[in-house]
Predict the structure.
Amino acid sequence: KKAKEGHYAVGQFNINNLEWTKSVLLTAEELKSPVILGVSEGAGKYMTGFGTVAAMVKAMHDELGITVPVALHLDHGTYEGCYKCIKAGFTSIMFDGSHYPIDENVAKTKELVAVAHAMGMSIEAEVGSIGGEEDGVVGMGECADPDECKRVADLGVDMLAAGIGNIHGKYPANWQGLSFETLDAIQQKTGVMPLVLHGGTGIPADMIKKAIDLGVSKINVNTECQLSFADATRKYIEAGKDLEGKGFDPRKLLAPGAEAIKATVKEKMELFGSEIIIECLKEQGVDTVFGYPGGTILNVYDALYKHSDEIHHVLTSHEQGASHAADGYARATGRVGVCMATSGPGATNLVTGIATAHMDSIPMVAITANVATGLLGRDSFQEVDITGITLSVTKHNFMVNTPEELAQRIH
Ligand code: 13P
């Protein structure tokens, strides 16, 4: 629900073993991003049972000192599997009744919603099977019926996975793409229900962003981590590294694969939260922004560029021009002026315009980027304490440290 309000999607990354779990947790912590660890019934069996998985995840979470929210979620659970995970101490389950006739799916989902909620757990349901093969179950990739989605959403599930032409595993060359009409129709019928996009592997970035825009708040990725892991491991072996010294030690042999999983998870997490600022600005009715780009704010500029038909960016020759222009724009139009700049000198160059607007009570919002969280407070390149510097010339200022709080702060 928070992701939906915040215009981002939480990633579900399926885990297979200790290395997978460690890589996903460390990356979530590094990016200060909430994360969902997905466990399919097959992966649970592989790890000797859901009890083993729950104990490993709980202990690893504590030993690594993870501070971001972590959910341990059963992926495509059977009716029996759901009960096993409830007993094992999972925090969330998915009941996939999509292969049952709708009345049976509704009846079973209803029962499991009551049990999960009584145990303080969240529950995801599915309508319309997701294509491809997962754990031996082959789906054709249907588009779900929005009315059936509404029936299941009305049971009080916390998230709903609905088929919109998505497929588990690699997408075939002749794939038609996601059906955004279906997604839109489902969201219209289900109101504020957070929707889940399965089969995250290989969906192009622009489709992911559009899906988030239309209501997707959780995206599942499995195969892509497996492919990155296999690729990095193959390179290690092919380079003969296992034959050098103690290169056969599993801690060395599996290290490149584990790093590759981290890189994939990082890329996905950044993609799933990449348009929060743009969506919030649009929601606030902002159609003009004044600014000057720089290193740390380039991601925002990438997103702005893609939405240049909705938000007009006025490039000034220096950041000071941007803050004075935003101030002038607000005076002339009666609307809120918005300006943006990069960290350090970019941010300090805004100060005179901010002070001018503050003196004359002109409504203005200034957005600056900052150095990466791990570099904060270390006199890093292009780092200044911009909240401290602008404290006396702003009504309020915030340092946003996690993607989760971004939307709330902009609003
Ligand atoms: P991919 O393997 O295609 O990423 O799908 C993952 C998934 O949807 C898990 O439920």
About this structure: The CA atoms of residues 24 and 262 lie 6 Å apart. Residues 255-272 form the longest helix (18 residues). The mean pLDDT is 94. The chain has 19 helices and 14 strands.
